[in-house]
Design goal:
Length: about 110
């Protein structure tokens, strides 16, 4: 049984003022989106289990609304945050996710 997976969270290179330059960090980098962009919430790794589950559920619930009615920037921010939350969820709770090892390889 898989209990935990080592999943690197997504990240983007920061510009001169800590802003996202749009350039991805090297694959497998441990720098997270939230290290570069603190305006997206508490880093997923710092959330307790209940808060992580709540935030991920909320992100999935809001996805359609943001896709349909949000701006391109809002969608990009939401995608990055959701990706970060999902990666952390897989790291902690791989045993709860079907095909967790395969899914984790996409992160």
């Amino acid at each position: 049984m898989i209990n935990r997976l080592d999943v690197a969270a997504p990240g983007f290179a920061a510009g001169t003022e800590g802003q996202d330059t749009g350039e991805p960090l090297p694959k497998g980098s441990r720098s997270t989106v939230t290290e570069q962009r603190r305006d997206v919430g508490i880093p997923a790794a710092d959330l307790d289990d209940g808060d992580l589950e709540r935030e991920l559920t909320h992100a999935h619930e809001k996805r359609h609304d943001i896709f349909v009615d949000g701006t391109a920037d809002q969608l990009a921010n939401h995608s990055n945050r959701t990706h970060e939350l999902e990666a952390e969820y897989l790291r902690r709770f791989a045993h709860r996710v079907k095909d967790a090892r395969e899914k984790a390889q996409r992160y």
